[in-house]
Every structure is written in structure tokens, then in C-alpha cells.
Design brief:
single chain, mainly alpha, 17 helices, globular
């Protein structure tokens, strides 16, 4: 289990590195380079729109790779999704800017981002299911939390590279070619990930299925459509929190508040490090007390903390911004640490790869794709404190709270030993 969990963690870290490095670039440089005829705010909105395309593609990737995972096994999904995401990320680093290609440049950027999202849409389902279906029932939360730590590591790696380049290059060098280096590095990481995943064995639960679904998506839509919609709505606030903290706030603080880019990246990286460290701890609590209670507590905490978070962000003080982000991320951890065990347990094994992944990635569209765009527009309409952003995030938290309240508990109940016979 440790070797399997480590390989899953490394793979998700690499794929999410690919996905997150685009978000950082969108917040910092893609607007002026690919949309130079726009105003600064409009350029940022356009860059975030290309960022959002990756989320729109993720449910489509869930359908494509979910079909493979439910029909042919979880293991092939891990290899194919990693190849697609890695290749498209390297290609982003090779796309000429608007000054060279004109309008074709942002169109190519859009296409590469779409392919990134397509690959990542299959990654989560394959990595999580391979781990969950190998794990003992009473430790599914713990072992499935390893792939959930992967996004935090991927984010730290992506932003660490950008931070290092920002510290060693001038603004002109970073804009000219430095921003491309993190995308080129994805090729090396993809090779490492493929080597790690080459030795993984197929899920025993998949091998036990006698009658595989012929068209998994059709069964999911017919028999589990309500569950898909509830899980998508439930997960929206987790995505909204994460991308409000890691993507929108980066653009807002550097452009509107004048906070130094390196300071902001360090602040965000520190809170994501806390997220990665505490995820297994919260997952163990999920194994002991159940998945549903933690998700409800996390959503309620998020609803209460969004206004304080934006108020602390608006100060522009690193310590206060960190505290605002920390409160939001603790709420995020509480609900999302158990999701990797919770979602697969909600779906029957024959359509689990498709159902769980589609629900997970539709939540990304609702919470992740729209949040940087909506928050940027709302912040532009307000004063120094973007209260509109706080209201937007609070509304999503309440929606997710309602959806989680309608989902059942799935934690396996420990067997009760029979009483000894008497007489």
C-alpha cells in the first residue's frame, strides 16, 4: 500500500504541477503577452478565461478516461492521462506570443489548455480508485489521502519554480522567456511519473467485476444523475476556496494592492504547505468519525470565514493575508481530505471511475473555472475591500453545504463480534 500510495501521490503531484503552473502564469504574465490590446483588467480576465477552459475540459476527460477505467481498468488511465497532460503543458511553453502570431497565439494557448484539462480529468479518478480499491476498508480515508496530497505538492513545485525564476531574473527576462521554463520542465516530470507508474498493478476490485458496463456514462446518467449533480454542487466550494486563494488573490494583490510578487507567492505557498501536511490527519478523522460530518463542518466553516478572509487580504500585510488564507484552507482540508474515499464509495464499482470523476470535475467547473473570473470582475466594482467576492464565496459555501447534507454516509461500519452462546 505504501508503494502504491507513493506512486499515486507522485503522479498526481506531477499532473497538478502541469495544471497549476498555468494558473500562476495566467495571474502574472499571460494577459500582457497574449492579450496586449486589452486593458490590464480585461487582459487578466481573458487570461483567466483561458485558465477556465481547462476546467471545462476536465468533465470531458472524466467521460473519456472514465470509460477506459470502467471498461479496461484503472491502470491504463494513469499512463494515458499523464502523457496527454505532460505533452500539452510542454507545448504551452512553446507557443509564440501575440506579437509573433497575432490572434493565432491565444487560440493555440486555448487549445493546449483544453488538452491539459482533458488529461487531468482522467488523472484524479484513476489515481484515487487504484488506491481506494487496494486499501483495507477501515483505512480507505488514510490511503486515499495520499493522491489528495499530490495537488499541494504540485502547486508548491510549480510556484517554487516561478518564485525562483522571479528572484533570479529581471521583469523583462521573466516576461521574455523565464515564464516558459516551468512549462518545459513538465516534460522531465512526465518521464519520471511514467517510470513510477509502470510497476503498478491493476485494482483487485476491478478484476472482480464480472459484467463491465458497456457504456458507463449512459448508466451514470440514467441511474446516478442526481448523485452526480449533488457531488458537483457539494465540491464547488472546495474548488472556489482553493482558486480564490491561489490564483485570484495572486493577481488581485499584485495588481491592485501593489504587493510584491515574491511576497505573495511565498504567502500562498506557506498556506498550501499546511494544506498538504494536514490532509492525512483529517482523512484519519474521516475513517474514525465518518465522511459526511467532516464535509458539513468544513462547509459551515467556509461560509463563516469568507468575509474575514477578503478583509484580511485587503490589508496587503503578509501575516494578515496568510491568516486569512489559513482559515479558508483549514475549512477546505476538513471537507476535501475525505473526498477521495467518499466519492468512490457513493458509486457502484462497475461505473465508479466515470461517476466519481465526472462529479468531481463538474464541481471544478462550478467552483474553479468561474471563481477567478467572477472574483476579478466583482473586485473591480468594489472599494479596497472586495466584499462582493466574500458574498460570492459565501453563497457557494451555502450551496455546497446543502448538497452535502443530502448525501448519505458511506464509511464502512466495523463488524460487530457475535455474542458467545450460553446455556
Amino acid at each position: 500500500m505504501l508503494r502504491l500510495a507513493a506512486a499515486s501521490l507522485a503522479g498526481t503531484a506531477i499532473e497538478f504541477y502541469d495544471f497549476f503552473v498555468y494558473g500562476t502564469a495566467a495571474a502574472l504574465v499571460l494577459g500582457p503577452l497574449f492579450f496586449p490590446t486589452f486593458s490590464p483588467v480585461a487582459g487578466t480576465l481573458a487570461a483567466f478565461a483561458t485558465f477556465g477552459v481547462g476546467f471545462v475540459a476536465r468533465p470531458l476527460g472524466s467521460v473519456l478516461f472514465g470509460h477506459i477505467g470502467d471498461r479496461h481498468g484503472r491502470r491504463p488511465v494513469l499512463v494515458a492521462s499523464l502523457l496527454l497532460t505532460g505533452a500539452s503543458t510542454v507545448a504551452v511553453g512553446c507557443v509564440p506570443t501575440y506579437d509573433t502570431l497575432g490572434v493565432l497565439a491565444p487560440l493555440l494557448l486555448l487549445l493546449m489548455r483544453f488538452l491539459q484539462g482533458l488529461g487531468l480529468g482522467g488523472e484524479w479518478g484513476g489515481a484515487v480508485l487504484l488506491t481506494v480499491e487496494h486499501a483495507p476498508a477501515d483505512r480507505r480515508g488514510l490511503w486515499s489521502s495520499f493522491p489528495q496530497v499530490g495537488p499541494a505538492l504540485g502547486f508548491l513545485l510549480a510556484n517554487g519554480v516561478v518564485l525562483g525564476l522571479s528572484a533570479t531574473l529581471s521583469e523583462a527576462q521573466f516576461a521574455a522567456w523565464g515564464w516558459r521554463v516551468p512549462f518545459w520542465a513538465a516534460g522531465v516530470l512526465a518521464v519520471v511519473g511514467l517510470r513510477l507508474r509502470s510497476s503498478l498493478t491493476e485494482s483487485p476490485r476491478f478484476l472482480e467485476i464480472d459484467d463491465h458496463a458497456r457504456v458507463p456514462l449512459a448508466e451514470v446518467v440514467r441511474d446516478h444523475w442526481r448523485l452526480v449533480l449533488l457531488t458537483a454542487g457539494a465540491l464547488a466550494i472546495g474548488y472556489a476556496i482553493f482558486y480564490a486563494v491561489t490564483t485570484w488573490s495572486l493577481a488581485y494583490a499584485t495588481e491592485r494592492l501593489g504587493v510584491d510578487r515574491s511576497v505573495m507567492l511565498s504567502c500562498i505557498m506557506a498556506v498550501v504547505l499546511v494544506k498538504g501536511s494536514l490532509t492525512p490527519v483529517a482523512a484519519v478523522l474521516g475513517d474514525r468519525y465518518g465522511r459526511r460530518p467532516l464535509t458539513l463542518i468544513g462547509c459551515a466553516a467556509a461560509a463563516l470565514w469568507m468575509f474575514p478572509m477578503v478583509a484580511l487580504l485587503a490589508t496587503g500585510e503578509p501575516l494578515l493575508m496568510f491568516l486569512g488564507f489559513l482559515g479558508a484552507m483549514l475549512a477546505f482540508i476538513t471537507m476535501f481530505a475525505v473526498i477521495a474515499a467518499y466519492l468512490p464509495e457513493l458509486y457502484e464499482p462497475r461505473v465508479r471511475c466515470t461517476g466519481a470523476a465526472v462529479g468531481y470535475n463538474l464541481g471544478g467547473v462550478l467552483g474553479g473555472a468561474l471563481t477567478p473570473i467572477a472574483a476579478t470582475a466583482l473586485a473591480e466594482q468594489g472599494g479596497r475591500v472586495p466584499w462582493g467576492v466574500g458574498a460570492y464565496l459565501t453563497g457557494i459555501a451555502l450551496l455546497s453545504l446543502g448538497c452535502f447534507a443530502l448525501l448519505p454516509e458511506t464509511r464502512p461500519v466495523p463488524a460487530v463480534a457475535a455474542e458467545p452462546a450460553t446455556g
